[in-house]
């Protein structure tokens, strides 16, 4: 955990910043009970990434891939934002932001597909459109592989054949194609609305501009191994900005960060951003 001197110095940089970007990953949602991918206990310690997170894998075995995403959807549906999500969402509330960074604009770029940052923003600031980019898509979007129709879908389960399969992930069953989620418009096979390896993440142009403008990057709960997101902190540092990493353990490139807050980010974020202890406070105060 960072010393109070690090926190003081960080708060001073925060206070002077003009464009803050947070780049978030799976560790942000860990305290909400959503498994990460690569670290101990991560989803891909027991499930081969390439057999699940590519378009080729989906077309090869849509039944297996749907069981994986059904498990993830059911978990995310029941999860609630933690103090880390709430601290970042609080930076979107003008009075909260002004109290810690009087001249700054804040944008959250998340690689997470669980929708928890959206929930946190809605809880903290329901009347405001958040500056939030879900660059790897959403678990609760579906895309038709025939007609391309994209819809939000929060059904639980998403189709009857997947009922109960979330209880036995790893012991998959074979579900016939016609029983997997189908398009309401054309009956084509639906796929999850997430960005797989080899696909182009969403809103890259807007995100590129935000990163170009950023003078402070908060790199939160990501292994920083998946591009293009992994490159954003380097870009901010390259044009003279400050990088602060919030991670429970060391991660790729953190030796070059200006600030390193080691610890669970539902504790380190509220403390570093607002000077509050997540253990004793339900939500950030200024
Ligand atoms: C905590 C914590 C707590 C735990 N508190 N911390 C060679 C070089 C460069 C690039 C490539 C290359 N070969 C291939 C590529 C491209 C490829 C890539 O990057 N591959 C790498 C593996 C090398 N990238 C792509 O294909 C991307 N598309 C692309 O590049 O398009 C081309 C293009 C780009 C730009 C312009 C034009 C064209 C697409 C990537 C899509 C990634 N998709 C996934 C799956 C999404 C759907 C799903 O959720 O299933 O996204 S993969 C997976 O990894 C998921 C995540 O969003 C992503 C990042 O993972 P994340 O979030 O960092 O999680 P973990 O588990 O890795 O780390 C968790 C961290 O949290 C750890 O550090 C923990 O310590 C920490 N932690 N608890 C704080 N309480
Ligand atoms: Zn369709």
From TrEMBL:
EC number of this enzyme: 2.3.1.-
Signal sequence segment: none
Residues annotated to bind substrate: 69, 72
Cofactor(s) annotated in UniProt: Zn(2+)
Chain residues that bind Zn(2+): 144, 147, 183, 186
InterPro entries linked: DHS-like_NAD/FAD-binding_dom, NAD-dep_sirtuin_deacylases, Sirtuin, Sirtuin_cat_small_dom_sf, Sirtuin_class_III, Ssirtuin_cat_dom
Gene3D superfamilies in alphabetical order: SIR2/SIRT2 'Small Domain, TPP-binding domain
Keywords of the record: Metal-binding, Mitochondrion, NAD, Transferase, Zinc
One MF term in the entry's GO annotations: zinc ion binding
One GO CC annotation: nucleus
Origin superkingdom: Eukaryota
HAMAP family referenced in this protein's UniProt entry, alphabetically: Sirtuin_ClassIII
Family statement drawn from the similarity comment of this UniProt entry: Belongs to the sirtuin family. Class I subfamily. Belongs to the sirtuin family. Class III subfamily.
Physiological role: NAD-dependent lysine demalonylase, desuccinylase and deglutarylase that specifically removes malonyl, succinyl and glutaryl groups on target proteins. Has weak NAD-dependent protein deacetylase activity; however this activity may not be physiologically relevant in vivo.
Protein name stated in the entry: NAD-dependent protein deacylase
Organism: Russula ochroleuca
